[in-house]
Design goal:
- The protein has 18 helices and eleven strands.
- The strands form two sheets. It has a six-stranded parallel sheet with strand order 2-1-3-4-5-6, covered by helices on one side.
- Helix 8 runs antiparallel to helix 9.
- Strand 9, helix 14 and strand 10 form a beta-alpha-beta unit.
- The longest helix has 26 residues.
């Protein structure tokens, strides 16, 4: 080592700086003091009982979560004050506030992300012409035969028009994309791209305009054609849309297609039209009838305001079957009541003119159940600016997940409506401001019930696909579940848990 110079002293001491006895002793004392401090702090924390709440709770460390249910529950309860009961007035105010927000989203800026809806991709089957174009031509070529009536006197072609939702939806789907206005539904040409499969079979036209045996044979052919398709066999029809808007249409074979999405006028619970397990709200969709009268817009409503001298108006068939028996009871109760007009309906243009004229002269329009819980008169009243008075305890309504019917209609239970003098007194007690508000809402809501070509945004075609969009996740759930459930498993869930539709007087 001789001859070398170390400017910083002995290299052994530089390499081991803690070799000094003094330094080692100092650091040892410091370590013992730190250990004593940490031990004391830990003991003080452990000494606190588990359910004791500190006076000042520290901010919770997200990196040190509670995994104990009791410890977490204790902290949760200690940090929550008891909640008071919400009274009915507060609930009503919240309901009104929610409706205002929903209305803003529905009618507001289409670019608003809250207003936009998911795009539904639809594959439209190209069925043979005998199921589609041939039936449409048959209807057009026989339309002028107005003497063709059903057994209860209703004009056949008018009935087909009322239930022609299958035409309006199909015509929009197959129109060139450049001519379509709806952006929440698109037609795809490849089945693997589709969310939904549309079956373009005109079940109502075939029922009314073909001979009975010819119609049943066509139904069986349509059933075989659809159920032979790979897409049907993959899902059991759960992602297929079947328009059966008239309750008699497709009746002989529709039990074989009960897993598909049915487009219906209502959901009869009496068993006269639909068998148990065939229809339920989670699967199917209620669509409005096509109105039989012209739309009364803002200008029309203003012009007719002073002419609405009739308190309550009804024109239609006074005797109906099944659920429609309420009509005859109402006729007896309201007979000769002041301010009430009850008329037997007639067919043809004269009957349409009389119904339209009567509705535009009335504040309220009676909408009782027909053979089924629904009635086309409800939608005639809406587009006429006449506030519907619905007397149908089992009625389900179109697009009720989007629209609030309490803003445009009155709901009266059958038991109240037939009480002597009750209905007239109830209607006379409604204040003028509420009537004006409901009339204004009728004009706004009318667009949701007016089918058109091309289909319009917020029209019934548009709302149909918005409602179906909301069903897609559940459709895929049941499709995939059905594909993997083993043979020995319990029956598949059908979600047909229905709650009685009891009318509440509002």
């Amino acid at each position: 080592m001789a001859g070398k110079h170390f400017p910083f002293g002995n290299p052994r001491l530089n390499s081991f700086p803690f070799s000094s006895p003094f330094l080692i002793a100092s650091l040892s004392l410091l370590a013992l003091a730190s250990l004593f401090f940490l031990s004391s702090f830990s003991s003080s924390r452990c000494a606190r009982a588990p359910n004791q709440t500190p006076l000042s709770q520290p901010r919770r460390n997200p990196l040190n979560p509670d995994y104990s249910f009791l410890a977490s529950l204790d902290k949760f309860l200690s940090s929550r004050a008891p909640q008071g009961l919400v009274d009915s007035a507060a609930a009503g105010a919240l309901d009104d506030a929610i409706w205002e927000k929903e209305t803003e989203r529905l009618y507001g800026n289409p670019a608003d992300p809250w207003a936009s809806s998911s795009v539904v991709r639809v594959y439209v089957y190209e069925m043979p012409a005998k199921f589609t174009y041939d039936l449409l031509r048959l209807f057009r070529d026989t339309y002028r035969e107005t003497t063709n009536l059903t057994s209860n006197g209703s004009p056949v072609h008018r009935l087909i028009e009322q239930h022609s939702i299958d035409y309006w939806l199909w015509a929009d789907l197959i129109a060139p994309e450049s001519e379509r206005f709806l952006k929440n539904v698109i037609r795809v040409n490849r089945q693997e791209e589709a969310d939904i499969f549309y079956i373009p079979f005109f079940t109502t036209i075939s029922y009314f305009l073909l001979e009975r045996q010819q119609c049943k044979a066509l139904y069986r052919e349509a059933l075989k054609w659809v159920t032979d398709q790979p897409a049907w066999q993959r899902s059991g029809g759960r992602d297929h849309v079947l328009p059966v808007h008239h309750p008699w249409s497709f009746k002989s074979v529709r039990r074989f297609m009960k897993k598909s999405i049915w487009l219906l006028p209502d959901m009869d619970s009496t068993g006269n039209w639909y068998k148990p397990g065939e229809v339920w709200l989670e699967k199917d969709l209620i669509l409005p009838y096509v109105p039989n009268v012209d739309f009364c817009d803002d200008r029309c409503l203003l012009e007719t305001q002073s002419k609405r001298s009739t308190l309550l108006f009804f024109r239609g068939r006074l005797k109906r079957n099944a659920g429609g028996k309420i009509r005859s009871k109402l006729v007896m109760e309201l007979h000769d009541a002041e301010g009430v007009v009850i008329e037997e309906g007639t067919s043809g243009e004269a009957g349409k003119a009389a119904a339209q004229n009567g509705m535009r002269k009335s504040l309220f329009c009676l909408s009782p159940a027909g053979d089924t819980p629904s009635s086309a008169r409800l939608f005639d009243a809406v587009v006429s600016g006449c506030i519907p008075v619905i007397v149908s305890d089992e009625l389900e309504l179109p697009f009720e997940g989007i629209l609030d019917y309490r803003k445009i209609a009155l709901f009266v239970s059958s038991s109240d409506a037939v009480q002597p003098g009750w209905l007239v007194n109830y209607l006379r007690g409604i204040d003028s401001k509420r009537i004006r508000d409901m009339q204004a809402n009728l004009v706004k809501y009318s667009r949701h019930f007016l089918y058109s070509s091309p289909a319009q945004p917020l029209g019934p075609e548009d709302l149909t696909w918005r409602m179906i969009s909301g069903k897609l996740v559940n459709i895929k759930l049941h499709t995939r579940r059905s594909q993997r459930v083993v043979k020995e498993s319990r029956s598949l869930c059908t979600c047909e848990c229905r709650v009685g539709n009891n009318t509440r007087l509002l």
